[in-house]
Amino acid sequence: MIIKHRNKSLKISINEALLRRLPHGHPKIPRIHQDLAMSKAGLRGEEETDYHLRLLPEKDFYIIQGIRLQDKETIFQIDTLLLSPFF
Question: What is the CA radius of gyration of the chain?
Answer without folding.
Answer: 17
